[in-house]
Design a protein that fits this description.
By secondary structure, the protein is mostly helical. Helix content is 71%, strand content 1%. It contains 15 helices and two strands. It has a two-stranded antiparallel ribbon. Strand 1 and strand 2 form a beta hairpin. Helix 2 packs antiparallel against helix 8. The radius of gyration is 21 Å and the shape is globular. The C terminus is likely disordered.
Length: 375
């Protein structure tokens, strides 16, 4: 069945904005500018401020939700299901997980390449699968367990590629290893967030855009206030700002003032995450959750190719191997093999692609974090 122009637009929007989200965050990290306390140019390293910008993009999804609801109500026959009312504080725990995981990932992005950053985020399916078994009572099928094992192998290969190339890229080997480990650690927190989201969304029938926007509200408000104590918390050599504190937001604004292009990178991160969330939900609704998984994998490839084209990193064959292995593992876990298997006569009688796709649709609408995704 051929896609409509609107479906093609949504697919393109998802891949484009998802790629811009990671690339713009990395672009901001690559700028050098003078700050408030000296005239020497240094790297723009403000991961917590970048996380605030990302949550501002998620918060905008709440505005999009209410705009869509108002537009739908003007129709003679409204078709949009806004979901039932719920206590917004129910989303405070997953929002705190989101805030912590995102902040750690932005710290890690300063230490490793954009492509490795995106590939290693595939580790989330390992911890999400295990936690869903432990706390949601879900039973994983054989293909999902195989997918988890293959994903682990893919992560090892990507990590090995970073280990081998660490001294030849712009990052020190110790920084690359630390960054990769931080990304894996962040995926544990993100998987907890996904399990909490799934439980709350299924129970309260919350619209995904409203869920993302509510989490964005909590993340934006809480992290914005936390920037104040972070300004006074000394962290020694771990702090890359002149005052060696956890986050110097004022210094970040001074650097932006000296090099306004940094603001463009931050805006790219904020705007892209909002459109990526909208496109991800729309692709699941208009096409299928399986298609969304394929597009998300394509986004990783685009980020890697663009990083090479921009000269941000050098070509490493092991990364290709790692990406392919991760792609296979993610595909098996999310059931992307089912449409292909359904074409086989021996498989079609017992299993259908529609059944697998419906299960994926339900899982995505209920439990997946539509950013980070993208982020």
């Amino acid at each position: 069945m051929a896609w409509t122009k609107y479906q093609l637009f949504l697919a393109g929007l998802m891949v484009t904005t998802g790629s811009i989200n990671t690339l713009s965050a990395k672009w901001a990290d690559l700028f050098n500018a003078a700050g408030c306390h000296d005239t020497t140019e240094r790297a723009f390293s403000h991961p917590f401020l970048q996380a605030v910008c990302m949550f501002l993009g998620e918060l905008s999804c709440l505005a999009v939700f209410y705009i869509l609801v108002c537009h739908d109500r003007r129709k003679p026959e409204p078709t949009m299901e806004p979901g039932q009312r719920f206590n917004p504080l129910l989303f405070l725990p997953p929002a705190l997980c989101d805030m912590t995981g995102t902040s750690i990932m932005y710290v890690a992005l300063n230490m490793t390449s954009a492509s490795s950053f995106q590939m290693l985020r595939g580790a989330v399916i390992i911890f999400t699968g295990l936690l869903s078994v432990a706390f949601l009572g879900r039973r994983l099928v054989a293909s999902q367990w195989v997918g988890i094992l293959i994903t682990i192998v893919g992560l090892v290969v990507v990590g090995l590629a970073d280990f081998i190339s660490g001294n030849r890229d712009q990052h020190k080997l110790s920084e690359v290893i630390t960054g990769d480990l931080l990304i894996i650690m962040a995926q544990i927190i993100v998987s907890v967030q996904m399990v909490l989201e799934e439980k709350f969304v299924y129970k309260h029938n919350v619209h995904p855009l409203k869920a993302v926007g509510t989490e964005g509200f909590f993340g934006f408000v809480i992290l914005s206030f936390l920037l104040i104590p972070m300004y006074f918390i000394p962290v020694g050599n771990f702090g890359s700002n002149p005052r060696q504190v956890l986050e110097d937001a004022l210094d970040a604004f001074c650097q932006i003032g000296h090099k306004p292009l940094i603001l463009l990178a931050l805006l790219g991160n904020t705007v892209s995450i909002a459109f990526f969330n909208f496109a991800g939900i729309s692709v699941t609704k208009e096409i299928s959750a399986t298609t969304r998984m394929v597009l998300d994998s394509l986004r990783t490839l685009v980020i890697w190719v663009m990083s090479l084209a921009l000269g941000w990193e050098t070509f490493h064959g092991l990364q290709i191997l790692g990406f392919i292995i991760l792609l296979i593992g993610t595909g098996l876990y999310n059931g992307l093999h089912k449409p292909l298997m359904a074409k086989l006569p021996c498989w079609a009688g017992e299993h259908s692609a529609e059944t697998g796709d419906a299960a994926e649709r339900e899982r995505l609408l209920g439990g997946s974090r539509v950013a980070e995704e993208n982020k």
